[in-house]
Amino acid sequence: MKIIVDAMGGDNAPQAPVMGAIQASQEYGVDIILVGRGEEILKVLEQNGIQDLPAGVEIAHASEVVEMCDNPATAFREKKDSSLTVGLNLLKSGAGDAFVSAGSTGALLSGATLVVKRIRGIRRAALAPVVPTGGGGAVLIDCGANAECPPEYLLQFAYMGSYYAEHVLGRPEPKVGLLNIGVEPTKGTSLQTTVYGMLKEAGEAGRINFVGNVEAREAVEGAVDVIVSDGYSGNIFLKTMEGTGLFLAREIKKLFMKNLLTKLAAVLVSGGLKEFKKLMSADEVGGTALVGISKPVIKAHGSSDAYAIKNAVRQAKQYVSSGIIESIAENIDVMRLDAPSHAGEEN
Description:
Layout: E1 2-6, H1 15-28, E2 31-36, H2 38-47, E3 57-61, H3 75-78, H4 83-93, E4 98-101, H5 105-116, E5 126-128, E6 130-131, E7 138-141, H6 151-167, E8 175-179, H7 190-204, E9 209-214, H8 216-221, E10 226-228, H9 231-256, H10 260-268, H11 270-280, H12 282-285, E11 287-291, E12 297-300, H13 306-322, H14 324-330
Parallel strand pairs: 1-2, 1-4, 2-3, 4-12, 7-10, 8-9, 8-10
Antiparallel strand pairs: 5-11, 6-7, 11-12
């Protein structure tokens, strides 16, 4: 298996992508294509005591970099020799099995959609992170790629999230819930009430395991395996979870630093604190899959260090092996609505 890594994407590039990818190659047994400015990649290797490219690692030179200030909708086109554009074209051509980038989310989503293309019949690709919950984590789909969604988008998100939970997370018959302000079928805006009926029908037909509306509190407690949402609400849900995790970690640290006794108590529970920190850390997951794209694309966090990039490569390997793309393609007929407003939309 060969994973393409954007060596110039992210706040800590090229150091983090280069060293994270090399660690992943050694640990997970995958080949790596590092895409970016060759001289900078080689300099990182030298700085880390690596004189020659390790076995299974190669460089694909790209002279340009998509910056965060670039227009995300057009950057990959305007900078045709950027690491992002070159990497996506390598994926499209079959030179690699998956693409990992910590660069601009908007540029990556636009580039993946227009270069690699969506799975035929999928209206929009979705960002689907696995968020920590009391149930061992849940797929949140969508978390920001599509702020405004017609009902069909959420119907497809539910199916794609279900396949992700089943194939990637190993959850048989994953429980699918629609994020809402109450559990009653009449709750929410017209979008939620319409989608509720569509998902209920899909559940009654045995196509997904739809358990109804789910409030944010119950979702965090682990009530469902898949949280279906429009990107606007999903992003608020995700950022609230991230902020709450940072707040709790800070307050717990302050609590244990009050005096000598609390510091001794901190030593006694240090193992549990480390596990809590790992549970809330995005670095452990590594990245977010762009579900709905015809080939595996993983978006790593912009601030990813080498450890996070290594885990993003691991996630890419799992995604390639999972068969989720094939499952979505095989079941596309039950995921589509005959809506005239979509007739001219590119697949």
